[in-house]
Amino acid sequence: MFWIKKIISPFFYPILISIEILVLGVILLLFTSKKKLAKALIIIGIVVLAGLSCEPVSDLILEPLESKYQPIRNTERYADVKWIAVLGAGHTDDPRLPVPLRLSERSLTRLVEGLRLHRLMPQSKLILAEGGNPGKMPGASIMREIAALLGTAPEDMIVESKSMDTKDQARIIKKIVGNERVIIVTSASHMRRSMALFEKQGMRPIAAPTGYLATKNTTKRKLRDYLPQAGAVYKAESAFHEYLGLVWAKMRDLI
Fold first, then answer.
1. How far is the C-alpha of 198 from the C-alpha of 143, rounded, in Å?
2. In a domain, 71, yes or no
3. Looking at the structure, do residues 121 and 59 belong to the same domain, yes or no?
4. Between helices 14-31 and 35-52, what is the axis angle to 10°?
5. What is the dihedral of CA 177, 182, 188, 190, to 10 degrees?
6. Are residues 96 and 15 in the same domain?
7. For the segment 194-220, what is each residue's pLDDT rounded down to a tens digit?
8. Are residues 23 and 126 in the same domain?
9. Residue 138: which domain range?
10. Residues 240 and 198 reside in one and the same domain
11. How far is CA 83 from CA 16, 57, 114, 181, 206, in A?
């Protein structure tokens, strides 16, 4: 099921959806008599791609995911919490790169936030969670090496390198922490699904979102904000990925 999800889900991402609509429109235009439908599909494909390339639109889609939980600023209220779990978000197996450069930007952002909380909560231990391809260094081991380079004591870290996705992370981390509370560090857009998966395991997770993408403008938007941007497509893709993940988890009774 894991690989089925990985193979199917990209076909529901913004760029591929737009291309699928455009290709269908072109096929109908060239090879059928349904010219009006073909033209309508081509227009829809262009509008969808242009709209999702516009930052205000992508922010509008992403913001509901990122606004449910707030970052942890005051750690004093969590003085009795022993565990901080950092959920990995991808890495490369390229051996030519030094270890600190093998983490994805999202994983590195999450690790930095986990380390910040750990420094403010000296009683805590870090659980670094992410698996990897067989025979390759898992993401959790890469995070551990980076954390060690930044001065984190080895005895303060636990490596969880078996998980393939967030569902696995929740299940395995439950075995580590038992009934104790755990702070979950992950991207703001990913937090809603993560919390639901951990709660389904009977846990009482504490949200520590990071890596916010939706723009919080305090001034009026400029004209360039409404022009197509690759960054806006990336935001929209992040939102689509999470909404699809929530639907998939709900269908499989995981949340």
1. 21
2. no
3. no
4. 160
5. 30
6. no
7. 999 999 999 999 999 999 999 776 567
8. no
9. 76-210
10. no
11. 40, 37, 10, 7, 10
pLDDT exceeds cutoff 80 at 6: no
CB 249 within 8 A of CB 171: no
* Sheet hosting strand 125-129, strand order edge to edge: 157-160, 125-129, 83-87, 182-187, 205-210
CA distances from 60 to 51, 213, 237, 242 (A): 11, 11, 13, 14
87 and 200 inside one domain: yes
Reading the block at residue 82, the tokens are 């022993």
**For residue range 41-97, what is the model confidence (pLDDT) as tens digits?**
999 999 999 999 999 999 999 999 999 999 999 999 999 999 999 999 999 988 889
Phi, psi of 176 (to 5 degrees): -80, -45
